[in-house]
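pasting for the record
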Amino acid sequence: MAIIPAIDQRTAAVSLFRSLADPTRLAIVQRLAAGESRVRDLVDALGLAQSTVSEHVACLRDCGLVDGRTDGRQTFYFLARPELMELLEAAEILLEATGHKVDLCSVYGTKARAGQ
């Protein structure tokens, strides 16, 4: 298996990781890993505004990571690619192996995100 050899593939990989870089989108993906949900279900589970959840679901859908099925007037969202969970599981293993040091990073870590 090639490790993202072409520039276009690297650019796409960056876009993929950016799509998952938002805590709300990541929480939605993790919730959808347990099964399909309506926006209302996600709002209740995550305690966020409907507009916020809808915006992030639309982003994930545009990225091809989430899809929806309509049942009457409701749309049930689900993970479009089960490989996404393998990626997130690999990330958890990497975080454990590094002792979560990435969170101490001066560019991307918690303090950098907080503006400290």
